[in-house]
Specification:
mainly beta; single chain; globular
């Protein structure tokens, strides 16, 4: 059984919705799907040169209590950054949920 003590980071899970602007162009907006407590486990990062400037990426795993209705199309809002979800994996028998995500700086 997962203990609550390590889940001490407040993470907002957001889902994109698409609407039409006045001129007919699609507009993507993000809305809060749910707010959950998680444990963050940093697993690495990378730096690369793109278009003449250096870009860095941070990769972490977030462990939550189990819930459903999140997909790789959603994103995490945590620590002042937006995190793209890379993978979602259940832990145990619906005991927890592990989300691997990356944030660009």
């Amino acid at each position: 059984m997962l203990r609550a003590g390590r889940r001490n980071r407040k993470v907002i899970i957001e889902r994109a919705t698409t609407s039409e602007e006045v001129i007919g162009a699609p507009k993507k907006t993000w809305a809060t799907l749910r707010t959950e407590w998680a444990e963050e486990i940093p697993i690495g990062g990378k730096e690369q040169l793109a278009s003449g400037r250096e870009m860095s990426t941070r990769i972490s795993r977030f462990n939550f209590l189990y819930f459903t209705n999140v997909t790789e199309k959603d994103r995490l809002n945590y620590d002042g950054r937006y995190w793209d979800i890379v993978a979602i994996r259940p832990l145990g028998f619906n005991e927890g949920l592990e989300i691997t995500a990356e944030a660009r700086a």
